[in-house]
Amino acid sequence: MNRGPSMTIVQSATRTTVSANIADFVRDLSIDDVPAPVLARARLHMLDALGIAVASSGMDFGRAVHRAGSRLGAGRDSRVLGFGTALPAPSAALVNGTLIHGLDFDDTHIEAIHHATAPALAAALAVAEQKHADGASTLLAYVIGLEVGCRLAAAGSGGFHDRGFHPTGIMGTFAAVCGTGKLRDLPQQTLVHALGLAGSQAAGILEINNSWLKRMHPGWAAHSAIVAATMAEEGFVGPATVFEGPHGLYASHLGTVPDRGALGLDDLGSRWMTAEIALKPYPCCHFTHAFIDAALELRAELSAQGTALDDVRRIDCPTSIRLMPVVTEPADRKTAPPTIYDALFSVQYAVALALVHGRVDLAGFYDAPLDDPDVLAVASRVTCGPDPESDYPRHFPGEVVLHTVDGRSLRRRVPASRGTPEFPLSEAEVTAKFAANAGRELSAEVVHDIARTFTRIEDLDDIGQLVTMCIAPEKQGVENS
User: Fold this and answer.
1) CB-neighbour burial class of residue 26 (10 A; exposed 0-12, middle 13-18, buried 19+)
2) Which of 17, 128, 248, 426 has the most CB atoms within 10 Å of its CB?
3) Rounded (10°) CA dihedral 242, 243, 246, 247
C-alpha cells in the first residue's frame, strides 16, 4: 500500500536533479540529432577500441580476465572480443572493458582525464548483442556514454587523480548506465534509479603498485552499470541525488559539488565532447605522449646534424608537479622499469625508446626486453624536474631538452600531443593503427573487412555481426584459454 505514495515522492523530488537531467537527455536523443562529423569520429574511436581489444586477447592479462569472466557463469547474451566466448552481458562487459583498456592504448578526453570509450563501448556492445540491436542503435548508445562520461569526469578535472581516484573507473560507470538505458529503453525514472545505484558501485583507486588493477577499471564500470540498470528495471530504488547530494559522488570523492555549468548540463546535445576525445598514437600513459612527440622531433634533428645519440650527455624533461608521482617517480623504477606497467608510466623510458628506436609501439613494451642496454643507458640520462609552464590538466604538455657534450642544447616543447583535437589523427592513421593491433590476432583479410564495415556500421541489422568478425578463429569457443 505504501509503494505508490513513496514512488510519487521520489518522482517529484527528481525532476530537477542532475540524474533527471541526464536521463532526459538519454531518453530524448536520436541518432539524427548527432551531427555527421561527430558520428564519423565516434566510428573511428569504436574501430580503434576493437583493434586494441583484439590485441589484448593475446596478452597474459587478457587471458586472465577471460578465464575469470568465464568462471563467473555461462551465458548466451554477449560474447568476448577476440575469444568469442558467450557470457552473461555483465560478464562480457567486464572482460571487454578490460581488454579495451588493458594496453593503455585507448582514447582519452584530455581535460576530463577520462578513458571515454572503454566503459561506454563495453557496456553498449554487451547489451546491444544481448538485444540483437542494430548498428545505429549501438552507435547512438555509445555516443551517449561518451557524452555523459566526459562531462561528469571533466567536472572534477585533475581532482580525482589528486585524491587517488581513477575517473574512468568511477565516471565510466555512469556513462555505461546511460548507454545501457538507451538500448533497453528505460523510462526516465528507472534510469534515475539506475544512476543512483551506480554511485555505490562506481570505483577505482590508483593504488596500483605494480598490479594490473587499473586495467580492469573500465570493465568493472561497464559490468556494474549493467547490474545497476537491471536492478532498477526490477524496481530497486536508487538515490536521485547521487551527484549533488551531501553524501553524493562529488562530495565524497572531491569534497566539493560542481554547479550545472561545470557539469556541462546546459550544453548537452549542442557541444559534442565526443569530438574532443584524443586518440593515442603510442601505447602508454597519455601523460608521456607530448614528451615522445618532442623526442622524436629531436631525434630527427640530431640525425640531420650528424650528431650521435652518444654525444648527448643529459636529457631534461620538465614535468608538471602533479604528474610526477605518476610518470617520473620513483626515478629508479622509471629509468630501469622492472615491469611493463612501470615502463608504460615512465617519461624517462618512453623518451629513451623514442630516441633510440625512433618509434614507440607495442613491440617496444611487449615484444622487446625491458632491459635493452641501449634504451636503459639513455633513460639513465633523463632528469625530470618541475615544469612551471605546464597548464595541466587542460593539456598534457611535454618538453625535452638535449644537452650535448660540446655544449649545445636542443629543445622541443609540445603543448599538446599528436592525436589530441589540436593535432588529430587522420582516418588513415586510425585505420592503420587498428590494422596493426587487430592484425596481431586476425588475418589481414578479416582486418580489412572490419575496417570496411565501419563505413556503414549504421546499416548493420545486428551488432553481433561485428562481434563475430572480431573473434580469432583459433580461440573461438575456448572457455578457459
Assistant:
1) buried
2) 128
3) 50
User: Tell me, what's the pLDDT at 248?
Assistant: 96
Q: How far is CA 237 from the centre of its chain?
A: 30
Q: Stretch 370-379: mean pLDDT, rounded?
A: 97
Integer Cα distance of 56 and 467 in angstroms:
15
Q: In a 3-state reduction of DSSP, which class is residue 412?
A: strand
What is the DSSP pairing of strand 312-316 with strand 382-383? parallel
- The residue whose grid cell reads 551527484 is 243
DSSP-assigned letters across all residues of 116-130: -HHHHHHHHHHHHHH
Q: Which three-class secondary structure state does DSSP give residue 291?
A: helix
The pLDDT tens digits for 23-78 are: 999 999 999 999 999 999 999 999 999 999 999 999 999 999 999 999 999 999 99
What pLDDT score was predicted for residue 131? 97
Strands 409-414 and 382-383: unpaired
Helix or strand run (H / E) with residue 87: strand 86-87
Q: In the structure grid, which three cell numbers stand for residue 210, read together? A: 605494480
Report residue 421 as a C-alpha cell.
583535437
* Residue 479, helix vs strand vs coil: coil
Q: Is 50 exposed, middle or buried (0-12, 13-18, 19+ CB in 10 A)?
A: buried
Quote the CA–CA distance of 332 and 320 in Å, as a whole number. 19
Q: Which among 182, 414, 185, 188 has a CA at the least distance from the CA of 319?
A: 414
Q: Which DSSP symbol is given to 114?
A: B
C-alpha radius of gyration, the chain, whole number = 22
DSSP 22-49: HHHHHHH--GGGS-HHHHHHHHHHHHHH
* Strand segments (E) across 307-367: 312-316
C-alpha cell at 321: 608537479
Give the per-residue pLDDT at 480. Answer: 46
**Residue 439 per-residue DSSP state:** T
Selection from 446, 90, 481, 407 nearest residue 438 by Cα: 446
Answer whether 322's CB lies under 8 Å from 381's CB.
no
The SS3 assignment for 147 reads helix
pTM listed for this prediction: 0.93
**Grid cell listed for 354:** 623514442
Eight-class DSSP state of 279: P
pLDDT at 266 over 50: yes
Q: Categorise residue 95: left if φ over 0, alpha if ψ from -120 to 50, beta otherwise.
A: alpha
Between residues 14 and 26, the one the model is more confident about = 26
Cα separation, 406 vs 24, in Å, equals 65
The rounded mean pLDDT for the chain is 94
Q: What is the pLDDT of residue 478?
A: 54
